Amino acid sequence: MIDFTSLIVAPPELTRHAAALLVLGPLVASCAAALSPNGRWAWIISFLASAFSFWMALALTGEVAREGVIVYAMGGFEPPYGISFRIDWLGAMFALLLSSMAMIAAAYSGYSLNAEILEGKRTLFQAGFLLCLAGLLGMTSTGDAFNAFVFLEISSIGTYALIGVGASRDRRALPAAFNYLILGTVGATFYVIGVGFLYAAAGTLNMADLASRLPALEESRAAEAGFAFIMVGLGLKAAMFPLHGWLPSAYAHAPSLMNVFLSATATKAAVYLMVRFAFDVFPPDSIIVERFMIWVMAPLAGVAAIVCSTQAIFQTELRRILAFSSVAQVGYMMLAIAVASGAGIAAGLLHLTAHALMKAALFMAIGGVTLSVTGLRLSDFNGAGRTAPWTMTPFAIASFSLLGVPLTMGFLTKWRLIEAMLGDAYYWAVAVIAISSILSLFYVGRMLEVLFFQPAQTGKNRIREAPLGALIPLWVLTVATIWFGIDGRMVEYIADSAATAVLGGVE
Amino acid sequence: MTEYAPHLDTNTIVNFGLLAMLLAVLVAIVRTRSLLAAVLLMGIYSLISAVWFVVLDAADVAFTEAVVGAGVSTAFLLGAILLTRTESLTKRWQDMVMPGLVCVGAGVLLFYAALDLPLFGDPSAPANAHVGRFYIEETKNDVGVPNIVTAVLASYRGFDTLGETIVVFAGGIGVALMLGFGERSMGDLPPALRSPVMEALAESDHHVVLRSVAKLLIPIIALYAFYVQFHGEVGAGGGFQAGVIFAVAVILHALIFGLADTMDAIPPELARAFAALGVLLYSGVGVINMINGGNFLDYDHLFPLAFEAGLPGSHLSGGYHHWGQHFGIIIIELGVLFTVAATMIAMFYAFAGRAADVVGEGARG
Q1: Residue B207: predicted pLDDT
Q2: Which of A17, A81, A197 should be substituted to probe chain B, the one whose Cβ sees the most B Cβ atoms within 10 Å?
Q3: For A162, which residue in chain B has the nearest alpha carbon?
Q4: Is the peptide bond prior to A248 cis by the omega test (within 30 degrees of 0)?
Q5: HEC string of A188-251?
Q6: How far apart are CA A255 and CA A112, in angstroms?
Q7: Torsions phi, psi of B6, nearest 5?
Q8: Nearest C-alpha neighbor of A338 from the set A399, A408, A389, A271
Q9: Which residue of A has its CA nearest to B275?
């Protein structure tokens, strides 16, 4: 058994404020990055700030293990009158995931921005990146429904701009960013309409306070409509089928750093809020949540897993293949969450973690050869694995994790998914996962065939290894994928505790 | 408790009238194909909303809507149209089926839920009886400023306001990443390219009336911004509104006297620095609160407790004055002012800097 209760990494003065500092670190650093003299300084600031967040996330995890739930009242006003951060195991899990992925992405950004972004824009790019991180961490830490909207906006606005910057490599980034901006704003507006209805019905914005008042409002149409608006709004943000239209282009044309960071974090934070609202804020046994899970979320997730895996097979651009695969994988997570049992939610969260690790690694490897690969099509990467084995071996390992090959984390999580579905007699869902896995065999096979079995390009077009600045974070992800595939007890413990915390409801 | 009964008074009739006008403007916006007309109609929409908010006694919200919605965002949208096109493309009706269905679905859901909402103005409605009531009853004990809206905005939910300030900052970073800071109009372009707008703006000597009126107005507008800034705790207003009003003074200067003159007075780098400094100032207050033993943004810990207790009339020594809260709110509002004003100015520079390109291309072509 892993014991987190003895985890003390920071002095008590800092640990007391860890919840606030987790978000404050990248926020303040973002201003510093915007003012820094050049891209190199901004990069160092960016890395240090995300490392600081990770440190605070570790401190929080220890506190959560000891205390159960951490409530930090902003401004010293007790909830529900002030805004409070409220971190349980689910929040701690996301704090760890987001900040560690940000740290790895920030390490990679030194190389990646040098390769793709003009020097004059690098400081602002890092500032925007840190704002995204702060926004995502705020979304997953706050105990206030409206405050979550504010952080959703911070992370979204940062993301729109950073996707658009990809225009220097690929002009299609501009319409992709604009498209995402419009749809993302619609999603955020739906969310805030929903929160407005909840406020009108219950008179509070605090999630714990809402949770204690909503059971008495079972009949309230305002609360029902609030739930519907919130789920649709967040579904858009989480790229839930059929609201995923923005994602493939946004991922395919964004700068490499954003590919890595977005695929590992952005949709995940929206999934977090969906879980939080469906099982924690609303009573999980209420009729509307049950119906939503059985009749909306589960079927749509199932369709996503099959349709988007099929679409991935027919894409010609490497990044688009991975983007469609992401939508399908979000389908897996939602399918498990829709089972609505402790095992289901835990499996969904585990798969979310595994997917963050493998997709970040896949995009990182592609970004790593961006200096020597001129095109975007799959065939432009012919034989990359032969001339750049150190960069492409992680790609292969992450692909295996995507398929669920034993000894990778993807195997562990797929196992847990199927176990949870069988536990609740969701046999059709198991069939969906099986079909989708077979489909993914086609597109993964196609990618690996091109990368490793096509003749390598020579001369001027020879694909070169990524520099060390890209290889180190890439291999860190790869080792983590294998490590958790062999011994996943730690992440399993965290995911199980998170599922228990969220289903236990708010006291 | 007596049952609350709605009644038809003048206010209600005015409300319905304003809502009908909003609806009419909306229909016009959707129907028009001229983007210019749509932008101006959106300004009118904001202005009517502002009036409606006044009728609803939400003076602070009305103020914000007026300066942001009807004021500066109209200017930005006009700038964006100048850079792109003034007519919207015609859409095939097939393309409008899905968006239409979404709109109808959302509308039906809104009506379904709205019929179940508590009556408007009902004092026992959840929104008025629970947290809202607490704010009305406790503001004078907790925060001690007369404007409860400011107390909620800057103190009880001050963390949200920090977040909103950062949203503005993030928007500024986004625009700067896409369009730059307007440095393209500053002189690294060949004269042939930069002259049209620059000279058109600079050589507007035949606009003597505009110039003299602007000379008179700009100081007054700027002064008004500071009035709004420093009366936020007692009346409607605060950093957001003041920041936008100040930015409007600068934008007016640029429109009348030329971008180059304005950039000499307020260089783009300065705007960039102040946008970041505002956020740093706001969060800096929170950090000082933490150092002095409170939680983040707990202005009661702005000063060390022993020091605050010694201040005249302090609530810690039997008085009524919350010095920490008062100064905390003033400083964070200043942070909001810096970020909002600087970001708006930087955004305007970015748009105006690009306008030089567009007009330049037109002149060459």
Answers
A1: 73
A2: A81
A3: B174
A4: no
A5: HHHHHHHHHHHHHHHCCCEHHHHHHHHHHHCCCHHHHHHHHHHHHHHHHHCCCCCCCCCHHHHH
A6: 8
A7: -70, 150
A8: A271
A9: A31
A131 shares contact with chain B (CB less than 8 Å): yes
Are the CB atoms for A311 and A323 separated by under 8 Å? no
Gap between the Cα atoms of A331 and A267, Å rounded: 12
Chain position carrying tokens 């507007």: B204
Inter-chain touch B177–A158, beta carbons under 8 Å: no
ipTM of the prediction greater than 0.90, yes or no: yes
B159 lies in a domain?
Answer: yes
The residues facing B321 across adjacent strands are B314
Q: Do B290 and A222 touch (CB under 8 A)?
A: no
How many residues belong to chain A?
507
Instruction: Give the closest of A121, A202, A225 to B109, CB-based.
Output: A225
How many residue pairs bridge chain A and chain B with CB atoms within 8 Å of each other? Answer: 175
For residue B73, pLDDT beyond 80: yes
User: 3-class secondary structure for A85-122?
Assistant: EEECHHHHHHHHHHHHHHHHHHHHHHHHHHHHCCHHHH
Residue A144's SS3 state is: strand
Parent domain of B283? 147-365
- Predicted local confidence at residue B322, as pLDDT: 87
Percent with pLDDT over 70 in chain B: 88
The predicted-structure confidence for B85-97, as pLDDT tens digits, reads as follows 777 777 778 888 8
Residue with tokens 């959840």: B126
**A505 backbone φψ class: left, alpha, beta (φ>0; ψ -120 to 50):** left
Assess A389–B contact: CB distance below 8 Å, yes or no: no
Number of domains into which chain B is organized? 1
Interface test mutation site (partner B, options A15, A72, A83, max chain B beta carbons within 10 A) = A83
User: Model-level pTM?
Assistant: 0.93
Is B25:B48 a contact under the CB 8 Å cutoff? yes
Please check the confidence at residue B194 and state whether its pLDDT lies above 50. no
Instruction: Count Cβ atoms below 10 Å from residue B106 Cβ, excluding itself.
Output: 18
pLDDT at A427: 92
Q: Is residue B343 part of a domain?
A: yes
Inter-chain touch B117–A226, beta carbons under 8 Å: no
Substitution target in B164, B177, B343, B354 with the highest count of A β-carbons within 10 Å is B177
B94 inside domain: no
- Closest by Cα among A57, A65, A64 to A1: A65
Specify the DSSP element, H or E, that contains B45. helix B35-55
Nearest CB among A128, A193, A201 relative to B173 is that of A128
Let me know if residue B365 belongs to a domain: yes
Question: Does residue B1 surpass a pLDDT of 50?
Answer: no
Transcribe B217-248 into DSSP letters: HHHHHHHHHHHHHHTTTTSS--HHHHHHHHHH
Is A34 an interface residue toward B (CB < 8 Å)?
yes
Which position has the higher pLDDT, B165 or B81?
A: B165
Structure tokens belonging to residue B53:
């908010």
Confidence of residue B140 (pLDDT cuts 50, 70, 90): confident
Dist. CA B200–CA B352, nearest whole Å: 13
Q: CB-based contact (8 Å) between A75 and chain B?
A: yes
Query: Taking Cα atoms as reference points, which of A222, A224, A202, A200 lies closest to residue A211?
Result: A202
Average pLDDT over residues B241-258: 89
Q: By the 8 A CB rule, do A35 and B274 touch?
A: no
Instruction: Select the residue of B127, B173, B299 nearest A200 (Cβ to Cβ).
Output: B127
Which parts of chain A have pLDDT scores under 50? 505-507
CB pair distance less than 8 Å for B296 and A75: yes
**Residue B96: partners with Cβ closer than 8 Å, 6 or more residues away:** none
Spatial CA neighbour of A142 closest among A155, A123, A157: A155
A80 near B CB under 8 A: yes
**Mean pLDDT across chain B:** 84
What span, in angstroms and rounded, lies between the C-alpha atoms of A188 and A180?
12
Contact A229, A288 (CB under 8 A): no
